[in-house]
Design goal:
This protein is α/β, with parallel strands linked by helices. It has one domain: 2-enoyl-CoA Hydratase, Chain A, domain 1. About 40% of the residues lie in helices and about 20% in strands. The protein contains eight helices and nine strands. The strands form two sheets. Strands 3, 4, 5, 6, 7, 8 and 9 form a seven-stranded mixed beta sheet that branches. Helix 2 packs parallel to helix 3 and helix 5 crosses helix 6. The relative contact order is 0.15. The C terminus is likely disordered.
């Protein structure tokens, strides 16, 4: 995960010529067309796809806040397929997940690497899922700086502070010791779906929609809200 900022990318998989499928619904009032992601938002499904950066984070945060205002007692599903990206952008999403009242269930589709893995494990305990052939990768933050020696030293100390903070948060969510997380994130660490479960990054592998619904059905009410993080 990078501490800098990357080029803007939309949070939806729009790479195929920038085209987004449209869904047409019919009602007594006639027809209404939605883009596919807006239609899924009605089902309280939020997609986090692609590079984590400020524009994507703002859209994810806005969707989470909207769904909270729509129904603060109903779960939100966050589907993640991301290679990671900006730490500050990712932390905006993370803090919002912990801040809002609804439980946020997470599901890894394809890959959750770097900041993507961090947000995957930050979902509501018991409701963090991974598909069988998805990959998860954890590692320490990275950054590049240039300028005066004093400024480089300041930035180096900042990235080390971020690393320490994120290791503590990941240890909290995974149920691991901070020392183990530090050791395991020293280099790129790729995990299979089962490895991610064993490590505590997610709670279970799901192979069908029914499995996810069976687990989530017991948590439609979120009296305690999202799990709060502490050092």
């Amino acid at each position: 995960m990078a501490n800098g900022h990357s080029d803007h990318q939309l949070p939806s998989p729009m790479a195929a010529g920038g085209l987004v499928p449209m869904v047409v619904e019919q009602s007594s009032r006639g027809e209404r067309a939605y883009d596919i992601y807006s239609r899924l938002l009605k089902e309280r499904v939020v997609f986090m796809v692609g590079q984590v950066e400020d524009y994507m984070a703002n859209l994810i945060v806005a969707q989470l806040l909207f769904l909270e205002s729509d129904n603060p007692d109903k779960d939100i599903s966050l589907y993640i397929n991301s290679p990671g990206g900006s730490v500050t952008a990712g932390m905006a999403i993370y803090d919002t997940m912990q801040f809002i009242k609804p439980n946020v269930s997470t599901l890894c589709v394809g890959q959750a690497a770097s900041m993507g893995a961090f947000l995957l494990t930050a979902g509501q305990p018991g409701k963090r899922f991974v598909l069988p052939n998805s990959r998860v990768m954890i590692h320490q933050p990275s950054a590049g700086f240039q300028g005066q020696a004093t400024d480089i030293d300041i930035h180096a100390r900042e990235i080390l502070s971020i690393k320490e903070r994120m290791n503590k948060l990941m240890a909290h969510h995974c149920g691991q010791s901070v020392e183990k997380v530090e050791e395991d994130t020293e280099r790129d660490n790729f995990l299979t779906a089962q490895d991610a479960v064993d490590y505590g990054l997610v709670d279970r592998i799901v192979q069908s929609r029914d499995e996810e619904i069976d687990v989530a059905s017991g948590g439609e009410s979120s009296e305690s809200g999202s799990d709060s993080s502490s050092d």
